[in-house]
């Protein structure tokens, strides 16, 4: 398991009873997490003093209750990368802090390469990986179907002082975009993707990870350069194991380019108890050095 532990502006304080208590900058948030099936050891202190609590609705979704007035959004940073945090109506904050271990790896891979790297970031959300790749000196194409998320990613890039970096932001269905890139003959040295379990593109295009992921990885092979650097897949889909990710990468990227594969879980330790909260899985393919 990869453990995220180098944050200063984020902290997983405690977990229990289906909830997690987190510090985002100077604000404490309490929100649900279905994997937390163990009890809260002691529901006191900061648990009772959270600045905002997310309550699920029996009809789906939910809403935040604020103990005090918070800014609509605020800034946090990670090793020179800067992001806007905003509690959204679907419980998220715009950042998945566990992904910092992948940002570190992306930066190391790109900055240690003797050549200019062109990165394709798919299902790119608010651009954590985009900011990391641009910071390391890569050219980046950032693609997401949600216009609001792409706007947020642009703002994160600017907040990090990287607006002058060669980054393209595209609002599009990722499958249609990759197929157009094939026709255009555009190539990339690295692919990053965070596919959802289920989703729809801007024009209602359906994505179901169990039906679409393998096919999509095969399509992405067609836009890889002759000597790609890496291929990274993250997943939060319940029931997907790291072995599934390893099998997909072996049958696609490794079959064509050799190289090495590492797959596993990502987790964050709670500072109060040391309990590690699992936060999805990753699959990495990288060219042999």
UniProtKB/TrEMBL annotation:
Q: State any single GO MF term.
A: methyltransferase activity
GO annotation terms (biological process): methylation
On whether Methyltransferase is a keyword of this UniProt record, the answer is yes
Q: Which InterPro entries match?
A: Glyco_hydro_b (IPR013780), SAM-dep_methyl-trfase (IPR019614), SAM-dependent_MTases_sf (IPR029063)
Q: Which domain of life is it from?
A: Bacteria
For the S-adenosylmethionine-dependent methyltransferase domain, which residue ranges apply? 72-201
**Which residues are in coiled coils?**
none
**UniProtKB keywords:** Methyltransferase, S-adenosyl-L-methionine, Transferase
Among Pfam families, the record links this protein to: Methyltrans_SAM (PF10672)
Q: What is this protein called?
A: SAM-dependent methyltransferase
